[in-house]
Amino acid sequence: MIGTTFQASAAQLDQAITAAQKAFAVTRKLPTYDRVNFLRAMAAGLRQRRDEVVRMICLEAGKPIRESEVEVDRGVFTLETAAEEAKRIEGEVIPLDLLPSSKGRFGMVRRFPIGPIAGISPFNFPLNLALHKVAPAVASGNPIVLKPPSKDPLTMLLLAEIAHDAGLPAGFLSVLPMDREVGDAMVADDRFKLLSFTGSPDVGWDMKRRAGMKPVVLELGGNAGVVVDEDADLEFAATRVTFGAFAYAGQVCISVQRVFIHEAVYDRFRDMLVAHAEAVKMGDPLDRATELGPMIDDRAAGRSQQWVEQAVTEGARVLTGGKADGRFFQPTVIENAPPRSFVCSREAFAPLMTIFKVPSFGRGVTALNDSVYGLQAGIFTNSLEHALVAFEEIEAGGVIVNDVPTYRIDHMPYGGVKASGLSREGIRYAIEDMTESRLMVVNRLESQAVTID
Predict the structure, then answer these.
(1) Could you state, in order of their start, the residue ranges of all structural domains in the chain?
(2) What is the pLDDT of residues 372-425, one digit of tens each?
(3) Annotation: CATH topology of 225-401
(4) Geometric angle at alpha carbon 249, from 248 and 253, rounded to 5°
(5) Which of 238, 243, 271, 237 is nearest to 255 (CA)?
(6) Which residues of 267-289 are buried (b: 16+ CB within 10 A; e: fewer)?
């Protein structure tokens, strides 16, 4: 057993929301230096307890220890970046005297915090994806009530201890493990002024329908695609595609799932991917040599095998892998899967990739766009023209050139189009959703003008 925690009741959730409302009277007026200092103290506390939090992620989520270390280090970076962005919540002065009727008038625009925020975060990055809600909320002076993932809630309870030790005012941050029935009340509660959800598309879009008038930020799933051009650096591309497909057992929203390979290099690149996949070391997440650990539960691994078997009955060929063993699922490469099969058209959230031969780079882009999702995409090419065409034509929130769609650094704008979500995360961009612009118009009356001699 890793640890035990509680499940918040409906009354305890109501208590947390009421505390957030009361806290907003304080947090909305916090000076910038206080918000900066809170975030810096949280970053320092997380850095100090790094090994403890790393071990918790590793044990609780089954994430290999090296990847858990990266997540905690990213969490420190997220908090430090939020401290810097708190200094840059700026406004502007605009001239209004563009018509004679507005003579003597000018406007000032400032951004103000909107109020209590409801955050719901997923299991795959139990620390850092939650911090992408918590850090900008603290930076902008908004209290937040966070529902951590049910499968690994202990990590964010450690972060709540760190936040408490950093001196956050009461009610600024509440972390409440809840079952779905209790947590579901957060969606429609109009005391929240923003709902920020990261998770599955089906759940996210249903939440949007029920959220009422509050704005909703949705960071949802995908079936991320990669196009490999005929002039690409194939060894580099194979190494990165392997990482992008199998990191954290493929349980990443921007995990590589579909690979479109120019026919001129298809056979060679296919063989390279198979060799790389078969070299991936599976094992104990606490073993530093492990590259692929268990999936989040037995059900996830079993479902993955069922999807692969279904694809085979529809004409696909498994080049390597495809089998579950308890919570482990082998790194898998699939050829010739029908585009409408589950392993292609849905979010697999498993360590598998499907590969396709395409006659040209342009046809690869077209095939990549044949999806209801559009989170991020990757291309490997040495052609600037092809890179520019991909940027213009690929229907996704981000196009990563000469790397996999799994690439992310925490200050960049991150989010999708189509079924993959609404709005953007990345600290500065999240702050924009958590604040609202307010205009003050000043009319300098000539009758009150002061003459300076």
Answers:
(1) 12-220+421-439, 225-401
(2) 999 999 999 999 999 999 999 999 999 999 999 999 999 999 999 999 999 999
(3) Aldehyde Dehydrogenase; Chain A, domain 2 (3.40.309)
(4) 70
(5) 243
(6) eebbebbbebbeebebeebeeee
How far is CA 107 from its chain centroid?
Answer: 36
Distances (CA, A) of 227 to 148, 214, 323, 405: 35, 38, 26, 10
- State the CB neighbour count (10 A cutoff) for residue 403: 17
Report how far apart, in Å, the C-alpha atoms of 307 and of each of 95, 245, 323, 331, 332 are. 60, 16, 11, 14, 12
Using alpha carbons, select from 430, 439, 8, 14 the residue that is nearest to residue 198.
430
Give the pTM. 0.96
Please enumerate in sequence order all residues whose Cβ is within 8 A of that of 101, keeping only pairs 6 or more positions apart, or say none: none
Distance CA 129, CA 134 (A): 9
CA distance linking residue 125 with residue 68, whole number of Å = 9
Residue carrying the six token digits 């590259």: 291
* CA–CA separation, 279 and 238 (whole Å): 12
User: Would you say residue 447 has pLDDT above 70?
Assistant: no
- How much is the pLDDT for 420? 98
At the topology level, CATH places domain 12-220+421-439 in Aldehyde Dehydrogenase; Chain A, domain 1 (3.40.605)
Is 362 in a helix, a strand, or coil?
helix
- Which residues are marked as active site? 219, 253
